[in-house]
Design brief:
By secondary structure, this protein is α/β, with parallel strands linked by helices. The protein is built from 12 helices and 12 strands. The radius of gyration is 22 Å and the shape is elongated.
């Protein structure tokens, strides 16, 4: 009977073609993207839940979904999912690990260029009727970029940087060597040597305020900071002070400790480029994210091994 089919609840909007493909699978699909009023009644019967970043999968929510076996996050980070609670319940969590790699890498390089050329204030000044020339800025060529965290996105940025003629350094305690010409080094050496410190680390308790006042003081004076990873990696008060003192020459931030951000002085600093967490916000990335999580849901429905399981201790197949 149709009602006996597993119920997949789509809590946040994903690519329409992915939903169409899911609806043709061996399941019932409920569109709960309108918000809590649509989501809450669907939770008691939900077999799988598809989310992006808006819906927070808490322990309390899991308690209202007794039949839930799978949470699929249409994106890379799973900060909005209580992994400990999900694992304790035996709920598998999957993500879309490669969906946004190209989009975030492109934004990262755009940030580098905006900072070294000091483009943001020049664009604003020109649009305001000013015509200021004769203030020479720098080039990306010949500079050193230090990646703090050298996972998939950082490696893609490094690959795309090759034509620019930059020196590439990286620090990652989980990546002892590289095969792409990027030199792995201790964090202190990276901070002292890099013209651009580019953050790509995961948001873990150990990485909270990874770039705080002490480490900012160890950076090359006037270096730039770029964060496209997670806002908690930076002590924003320390960054703001370093911008004022000139220890940091500029910052490009797509993520913040609190979103929307609550530090107007940091946002309005003339050497800060700020965007509203849009690293993955391209048509192409969202299409890939939807496709990848639907692939995982369909694998789960068929009892196949899952390819992007975030909590493998639960196991890749349904009980």
């Amino acid at each position: 009977m149709p009602d006996a089919l597993p119920l997949v609840v789509v809590a946040d909007p994903i690519d329409a073609s992915a939903v169409t493909r899911l609806s043709a699978g061996p399941c019932r699909v409920v569109d709960a993207t309108a918000g809590a009023d649509a989501l809450n009644p669907a939770l008691p019967d939900a077999w799988a839940l598809i989310v992006r970043s808006r819906t927070k999968v808490t322990g309390e929510m899991l308690g209202r979904a007794p039949r839930l076996t799978l949470v699929a996050r249409a994106g890379v980070g799973v900060d909005n999912v209580d992994l400990k609670a999900a694992t304790a319940r035996g709920v598998r969590v999957v993500n879309a690990p490669t969906a946004a790699t190209a989009s975030v890498a492109e934004l990262t390089i755009a940030f580098y260029l905006m900072l070294v050329r000091d483009l943001a204030p020049q664009v604003q000044a020109t649009k305001s009727g000013e015509w200021v020339r004769g203030q020479n800025r720098g080039e990306l060529a010949g500079r050193s970029v230090g990646f703090v965290g050298y996972g998939r996105i950082a490696r893609e940025v490094a690959r795309r940087l090759r034509p620019f003629g930059v020196t590439r350094l990286a620090y990652d305690p989980f990546v002892p060597t590289s095969t792409d010409g990027t030199r792995m080094c201790p964090l202190d050496e990276l901070l002292a040597s890099s013209d651009i410190v580019s953050l790509h680390a995961a948001a873990t308790p150990e990485n909270h305020h990874l770039l705080g006042a002490d480490r900012i003081a160890r950076m090359k004076r006037g270096a730039f900071v770029v964060n496209v990873a997670r806002g908690s990696l930076i002590d924003e008060a320390a960054l703001e002070a370093a911008l004022v003192s000139g220890q940091v020459g500029g910052a490009a931030l797509d993520v913040f400790e609190v979103e929307p951000p609550k530090r107007p002085a940091l946002l309005n600093h003339p050497r800060v480029v700020a965007t509203p967490h849009i690293g993955a916000s391209t048509h192409e990335a969202q299409a890939r994210a939807g496709a990848q999580v639907v692939d995982e849901v369909l694998r789960a429905l068929s009892g196949e091994p899952l390819l992007s399981l975030v909590n493998p201790e639960v196991g890749g197949k349904p009980a």
